[in-house]
Amino acid sequence: MTTQSNPLIKLLVNNKPIQTFFHNGEWYIVGKPDTEYTIRIKNPSMFARAEAIVSVDGNDVITGKPAGSESTGYIINPDSHIDIKGFRINESSVRRFKFADAASSYAAKKAAAEGDTSPLNTGVIGCMMYNEYIPLYYGVSRTINKIFPNKSVPLSYDHDSTAGNPQIFGTTFSCSRASQSIESLGTQMGAKEESNIRYTEFKRDINSKTISVLYYNTLENLVAKGVIPKDNPITACKPIAFPSDVNYFCPEY
Question: Is the pLDDT confidence value at 124 over 50?
Fold first, then answer.
C-alpha cells in the first residue's frame, strides 16, 4: 500500500482532500458514514476543454441512471477543475453526496423503487473524460450539440462553479447482492444545495477517452482487505463505475 494522487478524481471533506491509497493498481479512500463529500475533477489538458462523465455507485450524477459513454457530462476548462457536490435534481439544485451504509444508499433506494434486483455497484466513483474535438484545418471551429437536443443526443453542461482501468464497460458482474458486505459503504442523497448549470456547445474527441476509478469503503473493511496496511488479498467483488448508458436528471429517493 502506498499513497499517491488519483490523476482525475479527488474527494474533499470540509474543503480538504481525503488521503488516497494506492493498492494493487487501484485507488481507494476511507469513507465515514454520515459525512458529506465533494468530488473534484481535474482537466489535465493545457489546451482543450474536457467533458467529465461522473458516476457514483454506478449511477450518473446528473441523471441518476446507470452511467456510460452516452451519459451527460460536465464541461471543464483547460488546466482547471470543477467541484461536484451532489446528485443533480434540477438545473439549479443538487442533493449533497453523503457516505452511508450500502443499504441506505441512493443506489439501493433507487433499485428498490424500480424493482431492480441486480447487484448494487456501491463503493465506487468513476470519471470518464473526453477532450473537446478541435478540427485541425483553418477556419472551422467547434461543431455543436443543440442547446435542447432530444434524448438520443448527448447533452453537456457547463458547471457554474468551475475553477479556472479496469474493464468497466461490457463487463459481466457476477457477484450476488447477498455477497456484498452489510457494513460496506454507499452514497446517499444529503441536504439540498443550490448549484446552477447552463448548456454549452461541445463535441467529443472520441479518441481521447480516459477512465479513472476510485473505490471507497470503511476503514475496517479496507484494513480487512489489505489496503490499509495489512497484506491480505482483496477478495471482495468489485463494483462497476459505468454499467450502462442514458440521460436526464436524478429522481429523488
Answer: yes
CA–CA separation, 143 and 239 (whole Å):
36
Please state, in angstroms and as integers, the Cα–Cα distance from residue 44 to each residue in 6, 41, 78, following that order: 12, 10, 7
Whether residue 141 lies inside any domain: the answer is yes
pLDDT tens, residue by residue, 201-235 = 999 999 999 999 999 999 889 988 888 876 533 33
Q: Which residue has the higher pLDDT, 106 or 172?
A: 106
Domain span at residue 209? 2-224
| 242 in any annotated domain | no
Q: Between these two residues, 117 and 189, which has the higher pLDDT value?
A: 189
Instruction: For residues 94-104, give the mean pLDDT.
Output: 96
C-alpha cell at 174: 457476477
Q: Which three cell numbers stand for residue 8?
A: 482525475
Q: pLDDT confidence of 251, banded at 50, 70, 90? A: low
Q: Residues 246, 86, 49, 125: is their CA dihedral positive or negative?
A: negative
At residue 192, what is the residue type? Answer: K
Q: What is the pTM of this model?
A: 0.76
- Residue 197, beta-bridge partner list: 159
Evaluate whether residue 115 is within a structural domain: yes
Q: How far apart are CA 90 and CA 95, in angstroms?
A: 10
Integer Cα distance of 218 and 241 in angstroms: 18
Residue 191 lies in a domain: yes
Give the count of domains, the chain: 1
C-alpha to C-alpha distance for 202 and 102, rounded to whole angstroms: 35
Which residues are within 8 A (CB) of 175 and not within 5 positions of it... i.e. 6 or more apart? Answer: 119, 237
φ/ψ of 152, rounded to 5, equals: -80, -10
Closest by Cα among 110, 83, 121, 100 to 250 = 110
